[in-house]
Amino acid sequence: MIETNALTRRYGRTTAVDVYDNRRVFTVWALATGLLALMYGSFYPQISADSMASVPEAMRGFGLDDASSAAGYLQGAVFGLLVPLLATFYGAATGARMISADEESGYLDLLLAHPVGRTRLLLHRFAALSTGAIAIATVVWAAMLAIRDAAELGTVTIGGFTAQAVNLALLAILFGALATGIGAATGKSRPTVFGITAGLGVATYALHGFAPQVGADWLRRLTPFHYYIGGEPLQNGLRPTDAAALAAVAAVLIAVGAWRLNHRDLAR
Predict the structure, then answer these.
(1) Torsion over CA: 190, 192, 193, 199 (sign)
(2) DSSP symbols for 157-208
(3) How does DSSP classify residue 4?
(4) In sequence order, what DSSP letters do the residues of 134-156 get, joined into one string?
(5) What's the superkingdom here (predicted)?
(6) Whether pLDDT at 35 is above 90
(7) pLDDT tens digit string along 57-101?
């Protein structure tokens, strides 16, 4: 009875508990992403026109075509390359753990044998994932402000950095919603859910980057990366329509996942 009551209290469940359980994972992701952004951002004073001219034409669609301004450099080298990929992999890896890991181990049945609704469990897990995404974006934002003067990035306003951080958080949340939704809807294993989500992330990332090379810019609008960085938030600030598009897709994915989770047999 003591063990059962402890499990009920633990999985009663609050978002705070889920955040606490994943605190180490969130911390590692946030620090790694922030450090990467800081490192690449600090290279700006060393970038010359000649070095940017040597970038292959095929990479210009990823934002590596303008180092004449701090915003142009950051949009390509920092927020156009590795940082969004890390956000995508964070969402895929963390989302794959939210439901799929417990179901794969058989632990989900034990959790749901207690007074914990399926939708409630899913939403608490997703809220924890979103908290981690916000932590990552906040650390990146703080890293950029920390080197803003030393790295000659002063032409980018604090509002511009904030807008880019908001979109970064929403991008991670969207792919987290995709992974969580796939796991909840299908019951697939954690590696499978991660593979599907990460594969879709890389595919849409490549589509966004290479579409201009084939004269099909319109294809970019089919990818989340267009709404993440297409509006050039570092220069233009937050575009509510882009942020709303990312948030809306994430909400739909979670809603579909929750509906399917409530209507399928969890027995394995």
Answers:
(1) positive
(2) -HHHHHHHHHHHHHHHHHHHHHHHHHHHHH---HHHHHHHHHHHHHHHHHHH
(3) H
(4) HHHHHHHHHHHHHTTTTTT-TTS
(5) Bacteria
(6) yes
(7) 666 667 666 777 899 889 988 999 899 999 999 999 999 998 888
CB atoms closer than 10 angstroms to residue 260: 16
Which residues neighbour 62 within 8 Å (Cβ) at sequence distance 6 or greater? Answer: 76, 80, 81, 209
Domain-wise residue ranges, the chain: 2-261
Residue whose pair of structure tokens reads 């980057």 in the numeric block? 209
Give Dmax over CA atoms of the chain in angstroms. Answer: 71
Question: H-type helices in the chain, by residue range?
Answer: 2-10, 15-21, 23-41, 49-53, 70-73, 82-98, 100-105, 107-112, 118-146, 158-186, 190-210, 224-229, 233-236, 240-261
3 state DSSP class of 229: helix
Residues 6 or more apart whose CB falls under 8 angstroms from that of 5 comprise none
Q: Which of 261, 13, 8, 250 is nearest to 119 (CA)?
A: 261
- CA separation for the pair 135, 251 (Å, rounded): 20
- Using pLDDT thresholds of 50, 70 and 90, give the confidence band for residue 133: very high
54 CB-contact burial (10 Å; exposed 0-12 / middle 13-18 / buried 19+): exposed
Q: Which amino acid, one-letter code, is at 258?
A: A
Straight-line distance from the first to the last Cα atom of the chain, in angstroms, rounded to the nearest whole number: 26
| 216-248 core/surface letters (b: 16 or more CB in 10 A; e: else) | eeebbeebbbbbbbbbbbbbeebbeebbebbee
- Rounded to whole angstroms, the Cα distance separating 171 from 183 reads 19
